[in-house]
Structures are given as structure tokens and as C-alpha cells.
Task: structure prediction
Amino acid sequence: MDLDIPELPFPLRTYGPDGSWSYEDGVLTGWAGPRQDRFVPPTGESLEPAADAPRLLGAPEGDFQLIARVTVGFAGSFDAGVLYVHVGERAWAKLCLEYSPDVPTVCTVVTRGHSDDANSFTVDGKTVWLRVSRTGRAFAFHASRDGEQWTFVRLFTLGDEKETGAALVGFATQSPIGEGCVVTFDHLEYRPHWPPDLRDGS
Result:
């Protein structure tokens, strides 16, 4: 399924399991089904075929920032709403608001063959602002409690500039050990440039 969102200059396409994606009045909604996740355990050798989660992705050009306020209907540990970057089957990254395992937390996963997993800061309630940015071969993750003051979370790459320039970027939902959850993304914003300073809160 393809979905055009007026705030974004590129179309989005669904990947993975059905997320029942919908968009209305500035709000994007997606569902994660039971035990749906996108993670390659570093202690294991392979990605199980069932280890996938609903994703809605598109291909922005050049430098950009993608911003969304994310609200998760937490029902089980590790339920999450995600901004997602995909370069290849074993090269992708997630910026999540996750119930980790019993406190809402901003966390990140970067997968280069296998996944890592890192927590950033906890959140009161079920809502936070997330931002993914790209310049050249570099990606940056930021999060914010109010959409104004941004906390730098991570700087990384998933390949050379040609590979990262062709990345798919967008939204995902997950419920790794639960029975599913609903996630909404609103206050969507696209900026065609890299942040002026990664660490000054802008």
C-alpha cells in the first residue's frame, strides 16, 4: 500500500506485516500485532523469518530532518513507536519510544549484521518527540519532551554515502513480547537540511 502524507515530500510504502496504517487530520496511526519486532540479537546467528514489524517508509533526497510527536498505547514490555532508517536487510536503525521494560524510555537500535541496543532517557507518560536527520553518510537521532529543546541521542552511519543516500526512512510499530499496541505520529515535519548543531538543543 502507498500512502501520501502532505507534510512529507516523498510517498510512503508499507513493508513487513500489516500495520493498518491510516492518515487523517494530521495524524498517522499504525498498529503492531502480537510479538512483532525488528531486531537481530547480537547473541544469535540469524534473523528469524518471523522477526519483523510493520513499517511505512519512503525515500527522501539529500540532507533532511524528519520529525514526529509519537504516542504509544503501551500494553506490554517493549511496545514502541519508532522512526526507522533502512539501508539494507542487515543495515537499519530505530529511534524508539519504548516501554523498556516498565518505564517509557527513548532508546535506539543500530543494526550492522546484528543489532545493538541502547537506552537514552526516560519519559513521563506515553508521548515524546523524535527526530531523525541525515547528511552525506551520517544519520543523527534526537528526542525532545516538548518539541522545542532537543536532546542528542546518537550519531552513526550504515554504509557509504551512496548507500545511505538511497535509504528508506519513516515509521514503524512493535510489540515484541506483547499482544500488540497502537501508535500515533502527529506534528509531522520535514526539513530539507541537517541541524545546525547536534548538541546545542536546537
